[in-house]
Amino acid sequence: MQKRIVIPFGPQHPVLPEPIHLDLVLEDERVVDAIPSIGYLHRGLEKLVDKREFPEYVYVIERTCGICSFIHGLSYCQAVEEMMKIEVPERALFLRTIGSEYSRLHSHLLTLGCLADGMGFENLFMGFWRVRERVLNRMEESLGGRVIQGTCKVGGVRKDMDGEMLERMKAELDVLDKEMKEMTGVLLRDDAVKYRMKGIGVLPKKDAFELGAVGPTGRGSGVRIDLRERGYAAYGKIGFEPVLETAGDCYARTAVRCRELLLSTRIIRQCIGKIPDGPIETKVTGNPNGEYASRVEQPRGEAVHYAKGDGGRYLKRFRIRTPTFANIPSLVHMLKGYELADVPVIIMSIDPCISCTER
Amino acid sequence: MAEGEQPVNAVKLKELLGEAEAYKEKGYRLVHICCTKLAENSFELTYAFDKDYKLENLRITAARETEIPSVTKIFPGAFLYENEIMEFFGVAIKGVSVDFKGHLYKKKVEYPFAVDTDKVDESCKKG
Questions:
Q1: Which end of chain B, N or C, is more open, meaning fewer C-beta atoms within 10 Å of its C-beta?
Q2: pLDDT in tens, A270-308
Q3: What is the pLDDT averaged over residues B16-24?
């Protein structure tokens, strides 16, 4: 047997936007095992559930992540609304769907930029983030914030979008589509990018399913899991097909994200066309009693928000299973057998969100 | 649109692996494992499975000293859930495929989710 060495990768590393730590076991330059440590910054947000009343706890949940904060808030509200049998107005459901898809655009553009930067493609990083800036500006205008929105509340949403704003959004979607097609075209057609990603970090469909891969990580291997198909919020009234690739490598996972950008703008367009008039919230009376596991499709995949109440103002238990948490076993599996130089690209290809994981 | 019913099937400890195996054979995937503290030395573990976007749960109730068998031989991705439960609640799970032996998370308090939040706050303030 060749001599083995262990190289700590992270928590601080130039390619990592967030502090994940992996101990890489190497034979020469080849990874033979990877041991993850994920407790570097764990915040115990779930524990705060017995310190905040259930209507206020949504503010805590939104702070789980600085990228998919909107969808965390939405999912928490869904869990409580289901326990309390609250009928959310239809307009609020469409507004939640629009907010979710803007979050997905913002997240995918961010990670595609970081991936390009990780491969030394700095101009493309700036290009993706320039487009993302448009998305953030629109989120600030329509939802009330670039990072933390505070829009979702138990029973509906706090902020409406008037007709003029929706028309402006619709007009800008064409510009976004054009710019995103240009950027993703450059990324996916570039020979250096193909060399770094094709056939690297391969996760076969069977392994992806068995290890519990979700989101673009699973869909890049052909696993059809997209919780939007379940029809929560207004997705049941929107026609769409999940994006699937079959190669299971870093390139396939990236291609899924690139194609999902255009899917998101299509969904937003449909929402703008179908959004009904009406109230945006329902008066909430009483307290949550029972339990419910709310599931949503975040940019990185399925997230589960489990809530349990006993009829009091404070929930008895709240747990978040984030998509990155579910994807770590797949990451460990896909690293094995590849070169040390491939590790940053493979990690970036699952778009790890450690802020979510260290909830 | 709500997900609808999420049936919970309470099982005995000795039935857990057989039931989990049955879910696997029927094509379900493991969504998550959630531990909830019920009383001072009583915990509830909920194993959630999904197929075609329908969620079903297996549930066991156990005391801290009860050894719960690991499901990692059936669902290999379960090792993170099981390590988290062992470290946060102090529940004993036997036979986890990758056992971090208490070092998955860096914690100031032993079993933080098994003690009152005020006690966790005090320990953190002391540093």
A1: C
A2: 999 999 999 999 999 999 999 999 999 999 999 999 999
A3: 94
- Is the pLDDT reported for residue B29 higher than 90? yes
Considering only the beta carbons, identify the residue of A47, A82, A308 that sits closest to B2: A82
Q: Is A39 on the interface with B (CB under 8 A)?
A: yes
Whether A13 maps to a domain, the answer reads no
* CATH code for position A82: 1.10.645.10
**Six-digit token pair at A219?**
């869909």
CB contact under 8 A, B3 and A236: no
Q: Which residues span the domain enclosing A50?
A: 39-357
Q: Considering the domain B8-126, what is its CATH architecture?
A: 2-Layer Sandwich (3.30)
Cβ within 8 Å, pair A316-B36: yes
- The residue among A210, A307, A328, A301 whose CA lies nearest residue B46 is A307
Q: What's the farthest any 2 CA atoms get from each other in chain B?
A: 51
Name every chain A residue with its beta carbon within 8 A of the beta carbon of B6: 292-293
What gap in Å lies between CA A5 and CA A32, rounded to an integer? 10
Q: Is A118 exposed, middle or buried (0-12, 13-18, 19+ CB in 10 A)?
A: buried
Dist CA A342 CA A201 (whole Å): 8
Let me know if residue A262 belongs to a domain.
yes
Structure confidence at residue B26 as a pLDDT band (50, 70, 90)? very high
Residue with tokens 């959310």: A88
Are B48 and A293 within 8 A, CB to CB?
yes
Question: What's the confidence (pLDDT) of residue B1?
Answer: 47
Indicate the SS3 state at residue B107: coil
Q: What's the pLDDT tens digit per position in A312-332?
A: 898 888 999 999 989 999 999
Going by C-alpha positions, the residue among B7, B105, B12 that lies closest to residue A325 is B105
Domain presence at residue A14? no
DSSP string, B47-93: EEEEETTEEEEEEEEE-TTSEEEP-TTTSGGGHHHHHHHHHHH--EE
Q: What is the pLDDT of residues A65-100, one digit of tens each?
A: 888 889 999 999 999 999 999 999 999 999 999 999
Between CA B38 and CA A317 the distance in angstroms is 10
Helix (H, G, I), strand (E, B) or coil at A101: helix
ipTM of the shown complex: 0.89
How many C-beta neighbours within 10 Å does residue A341 have? 10
Number of structural domains in chain A: 1
A30 lies in some domain: no
